[in-house]
Amino acid sequence: MKALSTFAAAGVALAMQAGMAFAQEAPEQAEITIGLPVTTSTFLPLYLAEEKGYFTEEGLTVELVAFRGGTDLVRGMVAGAVDIGVGALAEVLVGIESGQELRAFYGGFNMGIFEWYAVEGTNSIAESKGKRYGVTTFGSSTDFLTRYALNSNGLDPQRDVQIIQGGGSGARLAAMDAGQLDVNIFAAPEKFIAGDQGYKLIYSQKDIAADYPNHVFYAPQATITDNPNTMKAVLRAFVKGVRLAKEDKARSVKLIAERIGVEENYAAQTYDDFIDELYEDGRLPSEEGMTAFWNIGIENGAYTEMWENERWLDTTYMDSFEEWKPQ
Predict the structure, then answer these.
(1) Mean pLDDT computed over every residue of the chain
(2) Among 57-71, 171-185, 221-235, which is the least confidently predicted range?
C-alpha cells in the first residue's frame, strides 16, 4: 500500500507540474483575428487548422477574415481590427514605410505560382510587343511581376505594351475570352483553366526564380514581442495544418474546391502546384528568391535598395522552431 501511495503521490506531483507548465504556456490573448488579403488556395494550412480545430487545441478562438486585397488588410491591422496578417511581404513593407511598426515573423509559403498565358499567335513575351496585358491593379504584385518579366525579356512596359487593370483572375480571363486582353498573368486554378481553353503558356514566375516569398505572417512588433505564447500557439496550429495538408491530399483537395469554388479536378492541380513549396518551419525563400523579390520592387520603384533584415523581419519564432513546434 505504501508503494502504491508513493506512486500515486508522484503521479499527482507530475500532474501538478504539467498543469503549471500548461498554465505558463497559456496564450496571453485567446481571441485572435487573422487577416488574409483574399480567399485563395495557398492558405490551405490555415483553412485546415480552422476546420480540424487545431486553433482550439492550442487554447485559441481564431477568426479568419478575408479582405479585398493586401492594402485593406494592412489598414485593418493599423485600425486594430486584425491581430495577425498572412499575406504578401510587399504589403508589410508598405505598412512599415508609412510609419507603422510592423514586422514579418514567419514564412513557409515559398511559392512561385504565377504564369503568363497568351492568345494564339503570341509564343513568348519577347514576341508580345503591342499586346494588351492584364493585371489585377496598378501597384499590385501581378503588376510588378508583369513589368519585371517584360523588362527581363527586352520590352519596355511603358512603351512596348499596354498594361490594363482588369481585376481578379476570373474577370481577366473573361476579358481575354471577349478579346479585350492578349496576355494575362494567372495563378492556379485560373492558369489551368486558361490552358484548357487553348491559351498558350509563354512565361513562368519560376523563370525569374525557383522560389519566392508568396505569403508571410506579420503583426505589429508589440504584438509579436508581448504575446510569445499566443504567437507560438497560432504557429503550432499552422504547422499542424501544413502537416495535414501534405498527408491528406483528398481532404485538402476537397477543402480547396469548397473554399475557392472550383471543380475538384482544378483543385487537385492547384494542390499539386504549391504543396511542395509549403514549409512548416517558417523558412524564407532561397537567396535567389529573396534577391528576385527585392529586384522586382526596386525596378518598379517601390524601394531604392534591399532592406536590412532588422527593418522588416523578426526571426524569434523561426529561430526557436525546434523548441515550440508540435510533436
Answers:
(1) 91
(2) 57-71
Domain range for 55: 29-112+212-324
Q: What is the dihedral of CA 194, 199, 203, 204, to 10 degrees?
A: 20
Taking the C-alpha atoms of residue 286 and residue 283, their distance in angstroms, rounded to an integer, is: 9
Q: Are residues 232 and 169 in the same domain?
A: no
The torsion angles phi and psi of 79, rounded to 5 degrees, stand at: -80, -5
Single-letter residue type at 59: G
Domain of 131, CATH number, reads 3.40.190.10
Is residue 135 domain-shared with residue 246, that is, in the same domain?
no
What is the pTM assigned to this prediction? 0.88
305's grid cell = 535598395
State how far the Cα of 170 lies from the Cα of 40, in Å rounded to an integer: 13
Residues 106, 164, single domain; the answer is no
Angle, CA of 38, 210 and 36, to the nearest 5° = 15
Asked whether the predicted pLDDT for residue 191 surpasses 90, the reply is yes
